[in-house]
Write a structure and sequence with these properties.
alpha/beta, Rossmann fold, single chain, elongated, four-stranded parallel sheet
Length: 204
């Protein structure tokens, strides 16, 4: 039997710096360094340059190693579709190092395929559910913080000393917005925005 060509895939988000852990795991499995592909991108879809390059290399004589299923992808539907492409269309094998049941080299029969497909479906569903839950918790946390008065983004610059005087003249029609903005040393759009906020504060 001809020896399979070994490939490895690493994915880290741009916020993470732990690709070395994945690389070491792949090297320990015997994957050659030159056949390890890495993307520093989100796992929300498969629009990743190195992954696409790797996919073109795979055939029925290949085996692809990943450390964990979420390194391949996090989107439940897309992950299952890519698994199908790799194992059915390309005819390659996949080995998920952290999950021995996800090793398509084992039991090349209907039962082995069924077990792999069921485990994959469960894990990819859990991975996507966790991603959705994290996003939901972040959104809830932001809303709660805003309700407490926490400000997000860059801090607002203090108003220039002459703003109140210029605002009164602009508000009474003594000058146009462009003149007021120049006197306050700010863009016209910024003047209008700050004037609107200033008015609300006065009205309250």
């Amino acid at each position: 039997m001809e020896k399979q060509k070994m490939y490895g895939y690493i994915r880290v988000s741009t916020r993470e710096q732990n690709e070395e852990r994945q690389r070491l795991a792949l090297l320990e499995m015997g994957v050659p360094e030159k056949q390890i592909y890495m993307d520093k991108l989100s796992g929300k879809d498969f629009e990743r340059p190195q992954y696409k390059k790797l996919l073109r290399k795979l055939d029925e004589k290949s085996v692809l190693y990943v450390k964990a299923i979420d390194r391949l992808g996090r989107n439940y539907v897309d992950l299952n579709e890519q698994w199908r492409i790799i194992t059915k269309e390309k005819g390659a094998d996949i080995v998920v190092i952290d999950m021995p049941l996800l090793d398509t080299r084992r039991e090349k029969n209907l039962m082995g395929t069924l077990i792999s497909d069921l485990v994959l479906a469960l894990l990819s569903y859990v991975a996507e559910s966790e991603r959705i839950n994290i996003k939901q918790r972040q959104e809830e946390g932001i809303r709660a913080a805003k309700n407490r008065g926490v400000q997000f983004g860059r801090p607002t610059k203090p108003l220039p000393e002459n703003f109140h005087e210029v605002y009164q003249k602009w508000n009474s029609g003594e000058m146009i917005g462009k003149q007021a903005a120049v006197l306050c040393h700010m863009p016209l759009s910024t003047f209008y925005k700050r004037a609107s906020t200033f008015k609300k504060l006065q009205d309250n």
